Structures are given as C-alpha cells and as structure tokens.
Amino acid sequence: MTEHRVPLLKVDNLHVQFSTRRGIARVLDGVSFHLDRGETLGIVGESGSGKSVLFLALLGILEGNASITQGSAQFGGFELLRASQSELANLRGRELAMVFQNPRAALNPIRRVGQQIEDILLRHSAVTRSAVRARAIDALRQVQINDPEARYHAYPFELSGGQCQRVMIAMALACRPALLIADEPTTGLDVTTQAAIMALIRDLTKVRQMATILVTHDLGLAGESCDRIAVMHAGHLVEIAPTARLFSAPRHPYTAKLLACTAYGAESIEDLASVPGQLPNLTRADLPPCRFSERCNRQLAACALPLAYQEIGPAHWVACCNPERAEEAA
Amino acid sequence: MKPSLDTHSDMAGTVWAAWRDRLARLIRPLRRLGWLGFLLRRLAGALPSLCGVIVVTFILTRALPGDPAAYFAGPAASQSAVEEVRHALGLDRSLLVQFGLYLQDLAHWDLGRSVSSGQPVASDLLARLPASLELTVTALLLATLTALPLGVLAATRPGSLVDHLCRIVATAGVSLPTFFTGLLLSFIFYYLLGWAPAPTGRLDPTFEPPATLTGFYLIDSLLAGDGELFFACLGQLILPAVTLALFVIAPIARMTRASMLGVLSSDFVRTARASGLSRPRILYVYALRNALLPVLTTLGMVFSFLLGSSILVEKVFAWPGVGSYALEALIASDYAPVQGFVLALAVLYLLLNLLIDIAYGVVDPRVRLEA
Ligand SMILES: Nc1ncnc2c1ncn2[C@@H]1O[C@H](COP(=O)(O)OP(=O)(O)OP(=O)(O)O)[C@@H](O)[C@H]1O
Ligand SMILES: [Mg+2]
Fold first, then answer.
1. Closest ligand 1 atom to the C-alpha of A48?
2. Are residues A159 and A122 located together in one domain of the fold?
3. CA nearest A59 in B: which residue?
C-alpha cells in the first residue's frame, strides 16, 4: 500500500561464500539494491570485488563450491534465491539475460552462431523449427551485423571480437528479456568497437524499455550510460547514487578515490586498481566490518562497529560511518 | 664424431622441413574445395609418413640378425649355393638397388614369401587381417562406449562413487598385462563358469564360417541372415575383445574426464547455462562435443596400443589374425612375414590417423576450414 511502485529487481542482504582450499571466502557480504523497470544501473568496482559473482548468484549459475547463505532477491515479485533450478532455467535467457566479457570465448567455438541463437529461441519461445531460422537471422539483423543471412552460418572464429559481442547481444535479447545484465561487455574490444557496442546496448534497451545492469571497471563508461551507479568493494556495496550525484558528491572514501583517478568525461579511463592498497583477502577470519577500513585514511574507532547503510541524500546510500563531506548542498 | 652426426641430423631436419613447407604450399589451394579439399590435404599430409614407413621397414629387414640367403638355401647348402641364392634374391647388389627392387615389389603388392607356409606374405596377411581388425575394432568400440559415459559421469560428479570407480578401473586396467587379463578371463568365464565358448579362434569348428563379403564374421553372418551363426561368432569374440578393451578403457576414460572438466568450466558453457539451455543440451551438445576433440587424439594413440597388445591376445585366444601369424613367424626366424606385418600395421595406423583427422574435421570446423 505504501509502495507506489514495485521494483523489477530487489536484492536484500545477499551473502555468498565459496569454500576454497584456503578456507571460506565470504565474497558477497550483505549486498542490497533495487532496480526499476527501464532503468540502467551501473556496477563498478575493481577486479575481484564480487561484481560477477553477484549476478551469477542471481541467475543461479554459481560454481559448485559456492553457497548463498542469506538474503533474498525478488525479480518481478518472484524469489530467485529460493527457486528451483528448473524454474531459474526457465527465466534465464527469457526474462533475465546476461552478456559476458571476452565474447569469442563466451560462444561455443564449434557451433554456428545462428544455431546458438536458435538453441535459445527453441528453448524459450513457442517458435516452430521452420520459423526459427528467420527469427535467428532477424535477431542478428537487430544487432546491426551486416549480411546477417551469411553470418548465420559463421563460426565464432570467423568473426571479429566486436561481431562476436554483437552475436552475444543478439542471443541475450532474442527472447526479449525484461532485464539485461552486461558484465563488462566491452572489455577486450578496441575503442571504436567499444563505443559502437555500448551505443547498440543503449539503443536496443531504450527501444524495448528494458532494464539494464552494466557491470564495468570503467567509471567513465558507467557515467555515460547509467541512471544510477553502485560502487562495490570487496563484496560490499559501499555506495549507490544517481549518476550525477555520485560524480559531483561522492561520499564514500573509496568512491572519492576512484573518481580522483578517473576524471569525469575524460577520454582515457584509468584502471580502478589505481586506488592505493589492495582488496583484503576474503578468506581471512579477522576481516573488519568495513572491508575498506585498512585502505582508508578517514578511519575512526566507529569503523569497528557493524557496517550500516545511511541514506545520505535522495536515493543516495552509503555504507560508511565517516563519509566525505558533500562539497555542494544536496 | 658426435658433433658431425648432430649437424647431419640438423641438415636432414632442415631439408625435411623445406619439403614439408613445399608440400604445404602445394596443397594450400585445395582449401577452396571445402570438404573434398580437406580430405585431399589430409591424404597428402599422410604421404611423407608412408614414405618413412617404407624406408624404415626396408632398413629393419636389412638390420635383422642372420643371413637370409643362408636361411633360404637351407642348412645343407654349399657356399656357392648360398651365393646363388643371394644373387637370386638381389642381396649382392648395392643397398640403393635393393631399395629400388623393394619398392618395385611393393608396387606389385609383393611382400615376399613365408618360408614356413610357402605362401606369399601379402595373401597370408590379407586373409588374416579381417580377423585382427574385427577384434581390435570391436575392442576399441567396446572401450569407447564404456569409457566415454564413465568419463562424463566422473566429470559431472567429481568426487562421487563413479569418479572413484573410474580411477580404480583406470589403475587396474593399466597395471594388468593383457595376456594375464586374457588368461584370467578365460579361466573364469570358460573354465569355472562355462559361460564363454572355448578360446579356440573365431568360430567353433561345428559352424561353417559365413560367406566372405567384408571378412568380418559378425557383419557377414548378419548379411547372410544367420542369427545363430552371428551369436556363435559374437561368443568367440567377446572374451578377447573385452581383454583388449580393458587395457584401453583407462586412458580414454581419464582423457574424457579431464577434457570434460575443462570444458564444463569454460566461458561458453557458462553462457549456455546463463541462457537457460537444458542440462542434457549443455552436457551433450555443448560440452561433450567440444570435449571429444582431445579424446579423438587419445583414440588414435590407444589404437596403436591395441594393435601392439593384440599380438599376445591373439596368441592366448588362438585368434587367427596377423598378430599370431607374425609371432609364429618371428619365433621361426621367418622374416618376410614379420616385415610384412610391420608394414601392414604401420599402414593401418596411418589410415586410422587419417580417419581420426576426418573425425576431427567433422567435429571441429576450425580444423576443416583453417590451416
Ligand atoms: N569458484 C570460485 N571459487 C572461489 N573463489 C571464487 C570463485 N569465483 C569467484 N571467486 C572469488 O570471488 C571474488 C569475486 O570474484 P568476481 O569474479 O565476482 O570479481 P569481479 O568483480 O567480477 O572481478 P572482475 O572485474 O575481474 O571480473 C574474487 O575474489 C574471486 O577470487
Ligand atoms: Mg567479473
């Protein structure tokens, strides 16, 4: 009654851990966020901060040594984390689609790309065998691959990296999902191809009013395409805010450091790893409540208290007890 | 002395590489022919190996101990008689001329005569080859059909009972010599249990062998529509085939498991899972087909093990194949059959590798369309 709109995706207090030879790695620790229909959310954070694990967990395709110990994730009112594998498999590719980095490796090397699209169409939509080919070629045409009839027969090794990524996008969008998760879709592509792929994702999702999650290392890229941006660090979601606000008034020290490394709108984007220090080892038993505290120069005694989120401005949440001062009035 | 030998082999290596390059350039335009081109390229690629095999068998026979001329002439022959035989056999000519004569003989399918049987070696081998092929191919099929599912199961459930079973079978299969497994199996299944027929060759003497069409009794008896004969042949075949198969299940299963594990953790399988494809489709259409590629290579290797160990297994089961033929000839110092056998096996091995290359081309478009 009080909710005026139900978000498309609502993740609450998600905990994921891996049992490894060196002990239990608590890779996600209390991650919460939501996403509205048609919205584009950016997820940024340095390598190893748990961005990919987050979405593999939502899709139910984590490796065997992973376990989801706590939390909930509602997708259109449907609880993902307690769904059976077959229920999840029905959603994947149909309602929730994912595009990965390194498109050439992400495609089956010995199957024609057209057939790979057909596999998904045949799995999820009531399309007949005779009509499926036309649908697959149409999906290729929509991602602006030239000569889609010929490309239908191509194997991944016969296509360029950019073309492979277009095929991946065609596969992800073939069944018109409600949410597209693009996990570093442009990493490994050259700069002009990167721009073209990003423009393609932006245009297609806008036309279809799809919600998009863009996972990236690249704050500049996220700034160009996203309505809101969430910053992850070592399995914590440390700050989430509307894009303009995050850039103009970052409150978490980590976000501030990231931004200092990446000038807003700058042409070249530096690697996020340029923040001093490194991610703590997640298998440690004595991990501090705030996993950034050891790299932070604003530490207080209160940092040893359990991590708490505070809403520090409109739609602006931060997980820090001593946030940076806002330079401008919220 | 040693350095000069090394430079010599270096030179030979360079010459060899140059020829290979020239051959590669020559056959490259065949790429445009698609499948046919692929086949022709593979055939052309097998030519150098075939030449190598011919040279090696020639050198091998010259290097074998003993004087063939004295052997042919018989123990009572005089010195001049031996020289006469030597001349008749061409053994007094230079090695190069002898090699030419050898090639000429080969071109006429002439592999010499067996002293013990008095028959031409070529026809002896040809008559016995189907028996050996039926045995080894059946063993390879048996082993593959057992090892593939075993390897896949072990890979999809690492650490499970199947996985451990896979490891135990693998260790046992490799550590027991085939002739021992053969004797053990006949002891249990023929002597103790009486389930299997006596290990006396391809067919019980009370049966008439089927009319020869393929030379494979199983196929010929089926073609003749004789079910009873088929099962009689199958009964004889099963123990030796299982003996051979047990020996090679291990490498195939281990390779399948390793390769499957690698593929299952690859990016494209993650994509397939993220697309919601069904588990069977992911396992068999996406993962297994990719995992088969290294398994195919293993199959080629394993087949050479099979050819080698079939010699002893044929002996144990009185199987009238080329292996037991060569073994008897070797014991009797009858070298022409041995030479023919080595040549036949080498050619068989080349053919099999050709077949595997073709299978590779079927499974992997990169092999077919590139290079
Ligand atoms: N199967 C696994 N077993 C153990 N640890 C894992 C496993 N998968 C991921 N991890 C750990 O989880 C953490 C987060 O990994 P994740 O792949 O989500 O990072 P990421 O933020 O996506 O990094 P990148 O930007 O490099 O893709 C890493 O520390 C990684 O070592
Ligand atoms: Mg990642």
1. 19
2. yes
3. B274
Query: Burial letters for B214-245: b for 16+ Cβ neighbours within 10 Å, e otherwise?
Result: ebbbbbbbbeeebeebbebbeebbbbbbbbbb
Give the pocket of ligand 1 (CB within 6 Å). A 18, 20, 25, 27, 45, 47-53, 63, 65, 217, 282
User: A106 and A42, same structural domain?
Assistant: no
The length of chain B in residues reads: 371
Residue of B265, B270, B289 with shortest CB distance to A100? B270
Select, from the ranges B5-9, B105-109, B142-146, the one with the highest average predicted confidence (pLDDT).
B142-146
pLDDT for the residue B1? 38
Report the percentage of chain A scoring pLDDT > 90: 53
Stretch (H or E) spanning A321: none
Give the residue numbers spanning the domain of A111.
Answer: 96-176
| B52 C-alpha to ligand 2 centroid (Å) | 51
Atom 5, ligand 1: residue with shortest CA distance: A18
The ligand 1 atom nearest the CA atom of A282:
29
Residues 39-58 of A with CB under 8 A from B: 56
Cβ–Cβ gap A106/B268 under 8 Å: yes
- pTM equals 0.81
More confident residue, B8 or B11: B11
A133-186 confidence digits (pLDDT tens): 999 999 999 888 989 999 999 999 999 999 999 999 999 999 999 999 999 998
Of A61, A102, A171, nearest to B267 by CB-CB distance is A102
What is the pLDDT confidence band of residue B32, given thresholds at 50, 70 and 90?
low
* pLDDT of A27 over the 80 cut: yes
Residue type, A267: E
Could you say which DSSP state residue B120 is in?
A: B
Q: What is the pLDDT of residue B208?
A: 79
Distance of CA A171 to the CA centre of its chain: 17
Whole-angstrom distance, CA of residue B89 vs CA of residue B103? 14
Look up residue A201 and give its amino acid. Answer: I
Residue A2: inside a domain: no
A300 and A245 in a common domain: yes
Distances in whole angstroms, Cα of residue B347 to Cα of each of A197, B42, B196, B307, B353: 53, 15, 33, 12, 10
Measured between CB atoms, which of A88, A110, A172 is closest to B289?
Answer: A110
Q: Does the structure show a pLDDT above 70 at B332?
A: yes
Shortest alpha-carbon distance between residue B40 and chain A (Å): 22
Per-residue confidence (pLDDT) for residue A265, from 0 to 100? 44
Q: Quick check: B244 and B313 in contact, CB under 8 A? A: yes
Do A23 and A146 lie in one domain? The reply is no
